[in-house]
Amino acid sequence: MPETTFTDFACPDCGTSLVAAEDAWSCGDCGRDYPVTDGVPTFVTDQPYWGEMPEPVMREALGNAREQGWEASLAAALPQGRGETFEYLTNPVRAQWAHFLPFPQGGRVLDIGSGLGAIAVGLAAHGFSVVAAEPVDLRARFLRIRAEQENLPNLYPICASVFEIPYPDGTFDGIVMNNVLEWVAYSKPDLSPGEAQQAALAYLLRKLKPGGHLHLVIENRWGPVLFAGMKDPHGALRFTTVLPRFAANLYTKLRLSEPYRTYLYSQGGYARLLRRAGFTDATFYGMMPSSRNYFYYFPLSPIGSLKYLLRTSFDPKHPGVSRLTNTVARLPLAARAFRHFIPDFGITARRPE
Amino acid sequence: MNVDRDLIPFVNDVLPALGVDGPSRPLQALLIKGNRKSVFPVFRRGDSRPIVIVKFARDPVDRPRIENEKAATDTLVAWMPGLGDDILAPGVVRDIGNGIAYARRASRGNPLARRISPVPAGTGPDLSEKHVDLAVGWLIDLQVSTRDRVEALGGRDTALETMRAENPAFAHLDPDTPAFARVAGAVADGTLPLVVEHGDYNPDNLFEDRRSLNVIDWEWGRIPGLPLVDLFEFALQSAKAAAIQGVVRSRPIGAEDVRAALGDNPFASHIRARVAGAADALSIPAPLASDLLTMHLSRYFPPDAVEGIVTELPEVAS
C-alpha cells in the first residue's frame, strides 16, 4: 500500500491541505510546519512523555529497534523481558474484538492512542488501512519501525493527539479508542471532564464519514471489582468511580492534591455521552474479566448469551461457585442485572448519514 | 472476518450439515479470545446454550491444524458412526473472510477441568476417580476398538517422522536418544501398536454430560498415532489445572506438575493403575510405557531434565 494513501493531511489548526516540504508537512494558509522524524509526521508540540515504561527504557528500546529488531530491543529494555507488560504493549491478539466491528472491509481506520501498536497491528491484520495516532513521539517512531519490520504497509503511524487529527473531516470509516476516552480531560484543562470527553467525541464524529462508526473500549463505572475496592486504574484510589462525582473530586483533591478528571460511566452514561456528541445507534458489548486481558467479548443484548456466561465464566474450577452461578443464572432478572455490572465495555456508535 | 457479514451467514448455511435443527430464530455469537484462534459460541437469539461452536484462524500456519481436525473427526465418525451422535460432533470447514473456519455442533456438558477441586499444595490434584475413569476408559475403548482399522491404514514406516515434522513440540527430539530409539524400533517391528491419538487430550477438551463424554479439539489428532501419550497428557494437564485453578491458563507444564500427575500421591497412583490397564489392553510392554513417557515429556523439558524427572518417578505402568 503506497504511503500516499495516508498522506492526504489537513492542517489540524486551520483544516487546509498540507503540502510536502523537506522533512516536514507545511500549511500554506496558516504557515505552520509539521516535522517528519524517522518517517513519522508530528502534529503535536510539547507532549510530555507518557508510557507504561520509563522514558529511558523507551529510548533504549527505540535506539536498538532497527538493529536488533523491535521485539528483541523491547524485550531487552523491559525489566521483565517478554513478560506481562511486553504482551500488553504489543500483542495484536488484544484486538480480536475487531471481528465484531461494523467497519467496511478494507476500510480506513484511525486508532487513537496506539502506543506500541497492539491494537493498531491487530486492526491492520484484519485488513483495515490503519492510521495509528500516538501523541508520544518515541512511541510513534517505535511503531513505525515495527510496522516496517512486520511488513505492514497498511499501518501508518503518526504523532498526533485526540484533538489534533491531521485529516479532513469525513475521512475515516472507523475510529477506535481503546482505553483512551477516560484520559482526554487532561488535554483540555479548561473544560470539565465530561465536557472534555464530549468535545473529543464531537471532534472525532466530524472525522468519520457519514455512516462511519466509532469503537470505544473502556471500563464500566459500576464494574464489580471497583465496587469491591480495587483501586481505580486511572487514579490509584479506591471507590472513586462509584462515588458521586463531587465526592470523588473532593477525595482525590484531599489524597492526591488534584481534581478527579478520569470519568468513567455506566452503560446509560456512555449512551448519553455519545448521543450528546452526535452519535446514534450505540451498541454495547461486554468484556470479561477486563479489557486489558479479556477472555470473553459478547453482545449485551439480547440476554441469552449472558445467561451462558453467568453459568460458565465465574470460577469454573470451584463446584460450589459453579452451582451458585447456575442457580442465579436461572433467575429471571439475573442476566438483566448482570449486564449492568460487566467489568468493561466495547461500544460501537454511528455517525448519522 | 466479520461476525455479522461472514460468520453468522456461514453458520446459518451449515446448520443442516451439522445436524442442528430447531426454530429458525436469528443467531448471535460471542467471542472467546484465544492466543492464535478465535472461538465463537453461536446461540439462537434468547437461548442460553450455544448450538454451534466456530473456531476461526487467520494465520496460514493454523490452516493445516484445522484441516487435520476435520479429517480426524470425519475418519472417526466414518469408522464408528455412533460417535458422531454422542461423543464427537462432526464439523464443516470453510474459508470465510480472511481465514478458515471450522464449525461443529456445540458439545453438551461441562469440561472435566471443572471437576478438579482445589487441593493443598503438594498433595496432588483431587480429580475424582470416576472422572479419570471416564476419560481414560473412553480413550482406551476407542483405541482398542479401532486398532485393526488403524493398522490397516499402514503408515508405520513414517509414523514417528511425521510426528516430529508436524508438531513443533517434538522438533528438537533427538532420534538417537535411547528412549526414542527403542520406541522407533518397537514401531518398526510391530511390537508397539499404533492407535488413534487425540494429541491434546486435556480436561478442557473433555466434556462430561450425564456420564457420557464429548471430546473436542482434534487439531493435533493423528491416525496412526502413539498409544499412552494421550493418557500422560491428560494426567499432566489435570495436575496443572488443579495447581493453577484457572488463574494462569497459559503457564507451561512444570516439573511439579509431573510429580503431581505421576509421582507419589493418590491421584498419581490411580493414573498409573489406569496406564497399566491401558498397556495391558493394548499389549504394550511395561518398559516401552516408560520410554513413551520419556518421549512425551520431551515436549516440555530439555532432554537432560527429562532424564532427571523420570528417574524420580515410580514405574509408570506399575
Q: Which terms would index this structure?
A:
heterodimer, A: 353 residues, alpha/beta, 8-stranded mixed sheet, 4-stranded antiparallel sheet, 12 helices, globular, B: 318 residues, alpha+beta, 6-stranded antiparallel sheet, 3-stranded antiparallel sheet, 46% helix, 15% strand
Low-confidence stretches of chain A: none
Order of helices and strands of chain A: EEEEHHHEHEHEEHEHHHEEHHHE
Q: State the secondary-structure class of chain A.
A: alpha/beta
Main β-sheet of chain A: number of strands, strand sense, barrel status?
8 strands, mixed
Coarse structural class of chain B: alpha+beta
Biggest β-sheet description of chain B: 6 strands, antiparallel
List the uncertain runs of chain B: 117-122
Topology:
The complex is a heterodimer of chains A (353) and B (318).
Chain A: E1 18-21, E2 24-27, E3 33-37, E4 40-41, H1 55-68, H2 70-77, H3 84-90, E5 108-112, H4 118-125, E6 129-133, H5 137-149, E7 155-158, E8 172-178, H6 193-207, E9 208-219, H7 224-227, H8 245-256, H9 267-277, E10 280-288, E11 296-299, H10 304-312, H11 319-330, H12 334-338, E12 344-350
Helix pairs in contact in A: 1-2, 1-5, 6-9, 10-11
Chain B: H1 3-18, E1 27-29, E2 31-33, E3 38-44, E4 52-57, H2 63-79, H3 81-86, E5 91-96, E6 99-105, E7 110-111, H4 129-145, H5 147-153, H6 159-166, H7 178-189, E8 195-197, E9 206-209, E10 212-215, E11 222-225, H8 229-244, H9 255-262, H10 266-281, H11 286-297, H12 303-312
Antiparallel strand pairs in B: 1-3, 2-3, 3-4, 4-6, 5-6, 7-9, 8-11, 9-10
Helix pairs in contact in B: 4-10, 7-11, 8-9, 9-10
